[in-house]
Amino acid sequence: MNPDVSAVVVSHRTSAEAGACVASLRESFSREGVRGEIVLVDCGSGTQEVAGLREAGADVLVPLPENRGYSGGANAGLARASGGLLLVCNADVVFTPGAVSALRRAAGQRRVGAAGPLCFWDAAQRLRLPPGFAPGLARDFLQLAAGRFPRLDRRRFRAFARQTLRLWREGGDAPHLTGAVLAVRRDVFDRVGRFDERFPFEYEESEWEDRARRAGYRLAYVPTARVHHLYARSSSRGADAGARRRASRTLYARERYGLLGARLLEWAGALARPASPVSLRAPRVERRSGASLALSPNPSLLPFVGAALDADFELPADVLPSLPRGPVYLRVFREADGEPLETYVWEYAA
Length: 350
Fold this sequence. Notes:
The protein is an alpha/beta fold and 350 residues long. It has helices at residues 15-32, 47-54, 69-80, 99-107, 137-144, 150-170, 186-192, 204-214, 241-268, and strands spanning 5-11, 36-43, 60-64, 85-90, 93-95, 112-120, 172-173, 181-185, 218-229, 278-280, 284-285, 291-296, 305-308, 313-314, 326-334, 340-348. It has 2 domains: 5-135 and 161-235, Spore Coat Polysaccharide Biosynthesis Protein SpsA, Chain A (Alpha-Beta Complex), CATH 3.90.550.10; 278-348. The protein contains 9 helices and 16 strands. α2 (47-54) links the parallel β2 and β3. α1 (15-32) runs parallel beside α2 and α5 crosses α9 (241-268). The protein is globular, with a radius of gyration of 20 Å.
């Protein structure tokens, strides 16, 4: 009998994290009464990593001899999966009780092309990762030219903050879902196709979601499905990650916006006018009623990781390994309308 759910877990130099991911899935299947299988794919990490993955307890292990990127790893796993619902995820994700069932219900709706969970960055589940950040020529241009058009920047932040808070609280249709976890029915993949392996690192989910929306499907954000995602932890282990990310970004811009649009985005960075926010000696912010905190390494603060300021905030130690060295921007904003109140910067040097 075929499983109800096939989880495709893609790993690259993340055998330790993959073990925790597989264990959480196995527990979820058992607790929630789901017939599930786990297909674990390694993207050319080497014999030592593969040996560690053999101990993870997956039903199927697919060791690829080369790094085909997340898109290639996901496709290799999908080729071996047999469930009607495909749960494609990074290895550095831990599922909490009820998450699999909530995603299964949402993705089972006829017009839903993919469903994604609420991802927490820290183990204490205070820092919420963004639901997604939909691309667009004007949006991408203003993102790269942050600070040049302050009124537009402020307006964009308010709109994104309102939308993000709504999705975190209520869920519903989203313009974009991050690729950390995607629940997709097999018939949707059959119609839309699998991931485009020309994207070596990132943007593969954006391109796939573009196709899904063109086919008339919705993207569902499901805050009742909660996972702990060690965001950016695994990507930092690839020496060529920066080059692969740039290649994917360039390809996506040319495919979606054409050569002229791609060149416009290349030029946009020269227009940036970095702001000079108040410096913090430590990443701490006092509580403030009716306000939330946005954090991002981007001066535009878009997209952002968020936390409610119903208590004093200090950046948790368990997220520091995911941070790039350099400035981290923190913005207090009003929850009622997304209005920015204060913006700070903290220099991460560790």
